[in-house]
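Researcher: Can you fold this with magnesium ion in place?
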Amino acid sequence: MTLDSVKEKILSVILGHAVADAVGVPAEFKPRSHFNLNPVTDMTGYGTHNMPLGCYSDDTSMSIAALDVLKSGSTDYIAIMDNLVDWVYSDKYTATGVTFDVGGSCMSAISAYKYSDRKSAFGHAPISERSNGNGSLMRIHPFVLYYYFTSGELVPHISDIEKASMLTHPHPRSLVGCGIYAFVLWALLDRPERASVYRGLTMAREYYRDSEEYHTYRRLFEEIGDPERELPEVDAIESSGYVVHSLEAAIWCLLRAGGYRECVLSAVNLGEDTDTVAAIAGGLAGALFGLESIPDAWRAGLIGGEKIEAMCRDAAVIWCENRD
Ligand SMILES: [Mg+2]
């Protein structure tokens, strides 16, 4: 793979995710019934968080806080947690200098870490079954990209992907959600075609067959992930911040869409956790449909987009040098 094609793939996923986050931000928390009457058709500003057009949220901030470490060829979890502290408490990695939309489990983990001796990045996050929001799923793609471009195989690194989730979301349900996402993104990076979504889900299903969490993802594996079956109707898809719902909704949007724009808008118009479902879907859609599929106006409208693009280019150079 050439350096240019590595750069392009990294940009397609990181920007695909960040741009979609920004499209979803003004619509967050509104119910689906609202969008049935007033569908979102473009990137806009203000709305729910009263932020300007192109403003990304926690999903992107936490992702680039991790990418800022990963891009130098290391998974130094202490450095990643330090960056997350800088995000929450010093507004670093934000679009407009304002931190907003921080999830409960992330806030607990990051603040507990901040006031600890900071000798370990782990053991600070809540582990109850109720702590299974989408807060690790929304920031896991830079880790998948890192392993994809520095190593040849995913399976030996699934435990590393799960470890990255554990920084904020250590419950097995969140780990498996991040693992499933990694199989799908990996398959799309290998071959950017719709069949790869099914291939990734099949590989994840095999991998997690004996997991105690298999049943929570049964519908994703056996219904949404079966190319022989029709996709569920929209009314059967929930788009809350629960990790299982967010992953199902994102993959459902991805499988229905003919392109990046359609995928992201359909995710936003599901309502509720609009920015995160769109971001998860958008990163995968970037991988599937390619960098060129991201509308120019959206890419240009993303606040701080140049900085994020520079980070992706740095990552490509170092990761190519470090490839096994
Ligand atoms: Mg958000």
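Model: Folded with magnesium ion in place. The radius of gyration is 18 Å.
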